[in-house]
Amino acid sequence: MEKIKVLHITQSVGGVETYLRQVIQNIDRSRYDLSIASCEPSLEKLCALHEVPYFHLNMSRGVNPFVDLQSIFKIRALIKKQQPQLVHLHSSKAGFVGRIGAKFAGCPSLFTPHGVSYLSFTGLKRMVFFMLELLGKRFTHKILAISQSEANRCVYEIGHKSENIHVIPNSMTIPSVPVLVPDKLGNLEGEIKIGTIGRLTAQKNPLQFVDIANGVIKGNEKVHFYFLGAGFHEDMGAEVKERVQYHGIENNFHLIGKGDSIIALNFLRQLDIFLLPSIFEGLPYALLEAMYEAVPCIVSKCDGNNDVIDNNDNGYACLVTDEFVAAITRLIKQPELAKSIGEAGKQYVINRHDIANNIKDLEKIYAEI
């Protein structure tokens, strides 16, 4: 049987990189021939590790008509040269220019937003990016959403036809035995450790994270807060440090630079509570990974988080800072409750987010398209 050639195109890393790693490691490589085009060095290393062809593409992060037009023609030329049967596009920028390039090349495409673009902005910027999504709709073949919330936005806000949208939730490898990894992080300070993983950008709402930390620390100085992922494609690092200084919690608040998957696992296994006050999400891998490690999770009520957290059952979903502080305080005071919440979260991930099951649905979608 001839292999189905799928070209993945992205500009982003983080959750997208984790997604691609899961696909590469679990898809039936005897039936599917994968390649990746991106501008990120980490993805080039990922491809080299798994013997997947990699193609370098320059794409601008913001709106840059000249560079974006160049990207469209480069993507079209790459598709014409490589002749994939399907192009799978990830994130807003690659999704926009890639859909147009694939359309011009006459190749069907599958677009995964990983969080629709306009949710990152307010005011005029939000309107501009929403209009770009409406424009992109004209060039869209099929959509693969990573959560039902993401699919709903595509249908009810952007106006895509529901029959053109598939939903497969972000998934992870569920090992048969606990994974043993070397300690690359060392011991974190504090009797009680609360943390998150992400970039210091508006999406992850780091200023509210600091405000929540302040509310908890003022009532219990044994608690330390950690943010893993600082210094990587961030634009709010200075603001976060200023807010920490304003509250006077420097001794109990820690920023840690971005690490690899082993450091992330070292980090999660030391946490007592995982905190994610994001403004929006697609469906965060960091949350799934924390839940799988049986860390009780407290999150914001936003897309992605709402798809995973059943409030008061396998975690807590909050809106305002006082709610977050109250939920954290409750779990600190009731360790048995924290343990049961963590175990419920782990079982949820095992039941619904096992890549061994969900990769079969992805293969089916690839074959159908």
UniProtKB/TrEMBL annotation:
Residues 184-347 form the Glycosyl transferase family domain. PANTHER family: GLYCOSYLTRANSFERASE. SUPFAM superfamilies: UDP-Glycosyltransferase/glycogen phosphorylase. Residues 13-170 form the Glycosyltransferase subfamily 4-like N-terminal domain. InterPro entries: Glyco_trans_1 (IPR001296), Glyco_trans_4-like_N (IPR028098). It holds the Pfam family Glyco_transf_4. This is Glycosyltransferase. The lineage of its organism: Bacteria, Pseudomonadati, Bacteroidota, Chitinophagia, Chitinophagales. It comes from the Bacteria. Gene3D superfamilies: Glycogen Phosphorylase B. One of its GO terms (molecular function) is glycosyltransferase activity.
